[in-house]
Amino acid sequence: MDAANQLTALLNNMFATGLLDEQFQQLQMLQDPSAPDFVSEVVTLFCQDGERIIGELAKLLEKPTVDFDRVDAFVHQLKGSSASVGAQKVKNTCVQFREVCQLKSRDGCLKTLDLVRTEFYDLRGKFQTMLQLEKHIQGFK
């Protein structure tokens, strides 16, 4: 299967499994010849920010006294960036995370952090594959 077909199959799978929603399609429509790397740059920033935020959340939840307001602020930030790139599963898990955070449950937050981490790294891996396929395709144009 050539790179273009692989990319199409990957994106179709990401939509079918709920990793991405229609917001990602909106993002793709903003890309044009004047900004050919727009989606790539947005996705890369999302991945970098997401990794940083997950690290911050892990640190906050390791402390003897958890500052649930700060945890909630970071989760809100991750939810917002997830929504802006169409990362539906990560966004939905952040909604759950905020609910658990409001209950001030450290155990609940730790469990939900694991879930967010799993969803995020699954998406990040697929985004990395997508970007590699796009580079490969552009190399032939």
UniProtKB/TrEMBL annotation:
Q: Keywords assigned by UniProt?
A: Cytokinin signaling pathway, Cytoplasm, Nucleus, Phosphoprotein, Sensory transduction, Two-component regulatory system
Q: What is known of its domains?
A: Histidine-containing phosphotransfer domain (HPt) contains an active histidine that mediates the phosphotransfer.
Ranked from the top, the taxonomy reads: Eukaryota, Viridiplantae, Streptophyta, Embryophyta, Tracheophyta
Q: Does the keyword Flavoprotein apply?
A: no
Keyword Cytoplasm recorded:
yes
* Gene name as annotated: LOC101773981
**Domain HPt per the UniProt entry, residue ranges:** 35-130
Q: Name one GO molecular function term.
A: protein histidine kinase binding
InterPro entries, alphabetically?
AHP1-5/YPD1, HPT_dom_sf, Sig_transdc_His_kin_Hpt_dom
The biological processes this protein is annotated with in GO are: cytokinin-activated signaling pathway; phosphorelay signal transduction system; positive regulation of cytokinin-activated signaling pathway
Name its cellular compartments: Cytoplasm, Cytosol; Nucleus
Q: Name one Pfam family in it.
A: Hpt
State the name under which the record lists this protein.
Histidine-containing phosphotransfer protein
Tell me, in a sentence or two, what this protein's role is.
Functions as a two-component phosphorelay mediators between cytokinin sensor histidine kinases and response regulators (B-type ARRs). Plays an important role in propagating cytokinin signal transduction through the multistep His-to-Asp phosphorelay. Functions as a positive regulator of the cytokinin signaling pathway. May play a regulatory role in salt and drought tolerance during plant development.
Residues bearing Phosphohistidine are H76
Taxonomic superkingdom? Eukaryota
Q: Which GO terms describe its cellular component?
A: cytoplasm; cytosol; nucleus
